[in-house]
């Protein structure tokens, strides 16, 4: 079953088209990482799905129910902007009160369990107004998950958190994933997305440019495989013909005495180069293939 399905979903503010005809499908149980530069339209897209903004055109369904629809609200968890927390309410009260508002009031012990999951158990009875930025963020995450929703929207869940808290939140996300929850998360931390998300969507100028697993994204960008080969010394006479040949096979050739680096379009080209060196009877000691990182893929978009 699809957890999220959008069809031509669009949003304009006056004449400014911020989200442009997005068709996106997210399977139940996925962790989808939603990437994009500042101003790409990510928040606007999420705000439509979570009922904060009405779409200008197009449609969406959450957990198979056409939105907006209050019936499905109980099964959706949204991490609020930390600045919208109530300063005079304790962490515990927050969770109990806001779960009631969302239609699925939770017990005191459930609220305490969730505060423990985000590492706030020692602060359960402190007012949110006295919390640090990181503590507010954790409370916002707790608020998104306290009513045990099926679909969870997390907006930059770890930005601004200390290293230990980041690990704690990653573990929590993985645990939710194991429980079969669907998680839709934005992040500007590409390492984090690469590590914990099952699929990645890259948004630019209001459109989703690419969506896929890390392997699928890499396959798409394989035109930029960088290969470094360490080899036995090459005789000057061989080099005279080998070097021009390599320049034809790939790009950005950099030759040193014991190794060279070259960019090729496909794995077949790597095989061709290895065969060619073999025909010159040049031993190859090592082949390093540098696959594009998410950062490189992201920057290309
Ligand atoms: N309520 C609004 N009225 C007018 N323009 C808006 C409104 N909300 C967002 N925008 C514009 O829409 C564009 C996309 O903004 P959005 O907040 O969706 O981007 P984002 O990808 O979430 O960025 P960030 O990573 O910085 O949070 C921006 O140019 C922004 O100025």
TrEMBL record:
Supply the CDD domains for this chain. Answer: ABC_DR_subfamily_A (cd03230)
Which Pfam family, any one of them, does this sequence belong to? Answer: DrrA1-3_C
The molecular function terms of the Gene Ontology recorded here are:
ATP binding; ATP hydrolysis activity
**What sequence ranges are listed for the domain ABC transporter?**
4-230
Establish whether keyword Protease is in the entry. Answer: no
Show the coiled coil region(s): none
The record's keywords, sorted A to Z, are: ATP-binding, Nucleotide-binding, Transport
Record InterPro entries: AAA+_ATPase (IPR003593), ABC_transporter-like_ATP-bd (IPR003439), ABC_transporter-like_CS (IPR017871), ABC_transporter_ATP-binding (IPR050763), DrrA1/2-like_C (IPR025302), P-loop_NTPase (IPR027417)
* PROSITE patterns membership: ABC_TRANSPORTER_1 (PS00211), ABC_TRANSPORTER_2 (PS50893)
Keyword Protein biosynthesis recorded: no
> Can you say what this protein is called?
ABC-2 type transport system ATP-binding protein
